[in-house]
Amino acid sequence: MQIEMIKRLIDQNDIISFDIYDTLIKRVFDNPTDVFNTVERIYNKHNGFGIKFFKEKRIKAESIARKMSNKQDITLDDIYAKLDINEKNIIKNIEISVEISCSIPNIEMVEIFRNCIRLGKKIIITSDMYLPKTIIEKILTKCGIYGYNKLFVSGEVGFTKLNGDLFDYVSDEMRTKSILHIGDNFLNDYENAISRGLRAFNYIPCKEKKKSYFLAKRNQIELKYLSNFINKSSLEKRDNYFKFGHDFLGPIVYEYSKWLQKNIIKNNINKIIFLSREGFFLKNCYEEIYGNFCETYYFGLNNNVLFYPMLRVDGSVESFFENIPMKKDTYTAKYLFDALFCNTKVSISDIVPCIDDNFKEKKFSASEWMQSSEFCDLYYKAYNFIKKDIYLQYDYLIDYIKKNFQGGNVALVNNSMSASAQIKLMKIVEFSRIDLNIWNSHFIKKKKLNNKNLNSFTWFGKNCKEISKCFFYSNCLVFETLLFPQTGTSIKYDFIDGNTITVYEDDSFANNNYKIISLIQSGATEFIRRYKKCDIYDIPSRYILDALCKFLCKPEYKDVMLFKDIVDFEDGNSKKFITKSIPLNKVELRKVWWKQGMIVFNGADRYLRLYNLRRIFSYAKEKVWE
User: Fold this and answer.
1) CB 477 within 8 A of CB 278
2) Is the Cα torsion angle 240, 242, 245, 251 positive or negative in sign?
3) What CA dihedral angle connects 374, 376, 381 and 383, to 10 degrees?
4) Could you give the CA distance from residue 77 to residue 128 in angstroms, rounded to a whole number?
């Protein structure tokens, strides 16, 4: 309603004046003085505990400067002249930097501002503020506010809206009182403007939402800042998929990218291989933040595509069982030979036409099959029959490595917990005598990998709770799916126009899923574009993992609904994330990927706590994560 009133008033006036804070822009902080706490934290982070109680000292210095000033308003330099601390210039520059970073546009009023430009109105900006005019201009530009005719800052001119004299000064400068002023403070922006002969409108900012996936406790200042940014973002016109991406996925992938970048620099890594499929969106996010800082690639290096190259390195039956893509407790002979011939049009019947059907359906464990001379003889016959295909896949991979990575220091990025791609790739490059130093980036990592002397870094590491890592592991597919492209999983390599490419499974489910996932990813991308201009804090990874686990284990119905049409395809079978099931029971829960989501979706929230408690009990003795 008030926006329509503002538009009508604008139509009736030629000169429009806007207030800045809480009108055209907002601060991410709840209170303007929170800036001072942040200044202290940033300074002490880089200089030890050099200053204490900066907020109190800064407020006191401003009070003294105002009392001693013979002008209505003061400048930042006036304040710092009364501040009893060392390295004033450094700290003042930090304060300016924080002021710029924490300022975000008030979207609905910025749209009004831009509409004034389109209408050809003369626009002025009028603010009571001690920051220099040049800094205010930077803040406005950062928030997409430009094209105005004049900027009046009280600290620069010595008059304030609080006293009303700034409006007289503005009227004299504009040579008219026929001005409409719009601002949020009833006294300063409305009553004082009217008392000086201007027209005015008291803008009331929209109430901010107070709910966030990243709820902060009292001492979690970093998380509070992120939560405030999300709550102050204007997304009313966006759908729920976009909002979920902006408010939940965006912060997670943004903080992950920051953490990744630190490790890239720390370990002198010059190339990053984002592995399909979860590497798809992680690559997009990293490049959105850091551009071309590092060479980046999106490539398939999963168990499927590395199967044949590993059989080229070691074609023994033991290597076959060690590297088979989908491991099971027991296998039928048919399953094993189908796995061996996965990238060919060959079947075991082409090698042994009269093979016994009963033999095909025999089911044994890997160790039992390796003791079967009949199976081993058939395996080596089959291996030799498709040897050319095995060697070709190896050659394609080696060609790609030599052209892109040889002699480099590379990092693999995916959600691997066991470093299988890293271990296999290391064996392949060693066999090929290629000079390549391989690192692996983990979300969580199995503790037993510490004995394998692997180069790696882990986001949810020792500072995170074991139980949280267990919950993340049990539901990680829900999170991974949010990062996927519209293609299926990697299945083999091909060689086209002199280059190796990854061939992906023709997966109609992945294509349909992406129609939903792309909306979520677009919201996350928008968050990154906005937040990278405002970022101040490094958020501890344990806070992010806590938020992830809360979403995965105690989801809200509105979020669960986003996943109702998502299906994953694995080992020849499709499996939904959630389904409707009445009554809800263990059998039905086994049919879906997201058990907690399924419980909430079916309105059985009263069982959610019990289910999670049972999971906690089952995880209690596990100490598998680094």
Assistant:
1) no
2) negative
3) 150
4) 16
3-state secondary structure of 184: coil
Residue-level pLDDT at 235: 67
CA–CA distance, 259 with 248 (Å, rounded to integer)? 17
Neighbours of 520 (CB within 10 A): 24
Q: Given a cut of 80, is residue 430 above it in pLDDT?
A: yes
pLDDT at 5 over 90: yes
Let me know: does 364 contact 334? Beta carbons within 8 Å. Answer: no
Task: Name the residue type at position 527.
Answer: F
Q: Do the Cβ atoms of 161 and 188 come closer than 8 Å?
A: yes
Alpha helices in 69-184 (DSSP H): 76-81, 88-101, 107-118, 133-142, 154-157, 165-174
Read off the amino acid at residue 271.
K
Q: Which tokens go with 503?
A: 């061939």
Contacts of 456 (CB under 8 A, 6+ apart): 419, 422, 439, 440, 441, 442, 445, 449
For residue 277, whether the previous peptide bond is cis, meaning omega lies within 30 degrees of 0, is: yes
Q: Roughly what angle, to the nearest 10 degrees, separates helices 2-11 and 107-118?
A: 20
Residue-wise pLDDT for 514-550, tens only, equals: 999 999 999 999 999 999 999 999 999 999 999 999 9
Mean pLDDT taken over the chain: 90
d(CA 215, CA 228): 9
Could you tell me the two tokens for 405?
């990575």
DSSP-H helix ranges across 119-220: 133-142, 154-157, 165-174, 192-195
Point out which residues pair with 493 in neighbouring strands.
Answer: 502
Say what the pTM is: 0.91
Tell me the C-alpha distance between 153 and 143, whole Å: 17
The pLDDT tens digits of the residues spanning 181-224 come to: 999 999 999 999 999 999 999 999 887 766 789 888 877 888 99
**286 CA to centre of own chain:** 9
Joined tokens for residue 191: 């009553």
Please give the structure tokens belonging to residue 476: 């990680």
Are the C-beta atoms of 161 and 128 separated by less than 8 Å?
A: yes
> Can you say whether residue 458 is alpha, beta or left, with left for phi > 0 and alpha for psi between -120 and 50 degrees?
beta
Strands 199-202 and 179-183: parallel
Quick one: tokens of 387?
């040897």
Task: Determine the longest span between alpha carbons in the chain, in angstroms.
Answer: 105
| CB atoms inside a 10 Å sphere around CB 186 | 12
- Residue 352's nearest CA partner among 378, 318, 325 is 378
> How many residues appear in the chain?
626
Q: Distance (Å, rounded) from C-alpha 21 to C-alpha 49?
A: 32
User: 3-state DSSP call for residue 341?
Assistant: coil
Per-residue HEC secondary structure of 403-443 comes to HHCCCCEEEEECCCCCCHHHHHHHHHHHHHCCCCEEEEEEC
Helix (H, G, I), strand (E, B) or coil at 219: coil
